[in-house]
UniProtKB/TrEMBL annotation:
PANTHER family: DIAMINOPIMELATE DECARBOXYLASE (PTHR43727), GROUP IV DECARBOXYLASE (PTHR43727:SF2)
Keyword Lyase attributed: yes
Renumbered residue ranges of the record's region Disordered: 1-61
Domain spans labelled Orn/DAP/Arg decarboxylase 2 C-terminal: 99-380
Protein name according to UniProt: Diaminopimelate decarboxylase
Residue spans of biased composition, Low complexity class: 41-51
GO molecular function: diaminopimelate decarboxylase activity
Organism: Miscanthus lutarioriparius
Keywords on record: Decarboxylase, Lyase, Pyridoxal phosphate
Upper classification of the organism: Eukaryota, Viridiplantae, Streptophyta, Embryophyta, Tracheophyta
GO cellular component, one term: chloroplast
Domain Orn/DAP/Arg decarboxylase 2 N-terminal: 105-225, 228-301
One GO process term, biological-process aspect: lysine biosynthetic process via diaminopimelate
InterPro entries assigned to the protein according to its UniProt record, in alphabetical order: Ala_racemase/Decarboxylase_C, DAP_deCOOHase_LysA, De-COase2_C, De-COase2_CS, De-COase2_N, De-COase2_pyr-phos_BS, PLP-binding_barrel
Amino acid sequence: MAAANLLSRSLLPTPNPTQSSHPNRRSPAVVSFPRRHGRLSSVRASVSTASPSPPPQPAAAAAAGVPKHCFRRGADGYLYCEGVRVEDAMAAAERSPFYLYSKPQILRNFAAYRDALQGLRSIVGYAVKANNNLPVLRVLRELGCGAVLVSGNELRLALQAGFDPTRCIFNGNGKTFEDLKLAAESGVFVNVDSEFDLENIVRAARATGKKVPVLLRINPDVDPQVDIFRDAAVLMVNYVDEIRAQGFKLEYLNIGGGLGIDYHHTDAVLPTPMDLINTVRELVLSTDLTLIIEPGRSLIANTCCFVNRVTGVKSNGTKNFIVVDGSMAELIRPSLYGAYQHIELVSPPTPGAEVATFDVVGPVCESADFLGKDRELPTPDEVEEDGSIVKIRHEEKLDDYMKFFDGLPA
């Protein structure tokens, strides 16, 4: 389903439409990390991989080799991020597990939207629920992004990150009165979700003495398989005409977000930001509206990964497990609702390493603590333990246990 928002905002100034067209920023050079001696067995659970990120082109261009993410397997078998071995990043990290981000990829992803929106008055509102890491939010704010918020805490975080409130949208079906008062005082857009939500917005406006800019959410119920954004936009234009005919002043059209991402690393050809904007460009221009979009995953998903150290490999006789030091405490999505995260080894496997089906699990004593299930992976063969290299066996046999008793008195 697609949802869109219409804004009647006659009493507040229009955000500077040029802010979304931020000038190109040069990506910082990637610094090589010092490397400790000894091999490391490790896996990374990709927070996901997204649609093509360099300058936007029609979806067909993806098949022509447009890079999809900054994490790539080198000819030497190691995983690299922006030319740096992820294994070397592990060696330099203060602790494990950790999230590894590519700022250049964030810049490339934003540039795809910025370039697609050329010629339109627009606001790119980043969906904070996609990733609320404060340094990431600050990078996006510096690029000219607004913020899309679904809770009072996200609203406070956006204000802490320095986002322009007039470029922020407060969504959600359970907004509290206290959060709405903060929204009113801050000057963010507030999305009207229901009649009781509207009543609370009015109360907050009266309590603060502020005029609240509101968005009206409309669910057009279009077929998600056929030009969803254009179908939704056509319906929205009809609503715009009807509302304007009643004497209301409309200034904004919010088509939401929703660009897909390639979770499974299948090199799927997915719509790009340019594809999305081109489906609604003429309609937006014909109605003289400022376009708001709410990208989340397509801005951030392919910029980071969750890097873990393998602590062991075991089997219960029917199922094989790779145990890592990361857990549901750091990445909740797989255990919470079965979200798929791409998982791969950071280092090349030893020649001849057995490929088997594993569940990748964490150290928390909880049956739901897993990052992935039934994954075909080479068996990790080594970890670094107290500076020495220790072999990990795929399975322990009785002889392996009994050797520890050799030489002991009966």
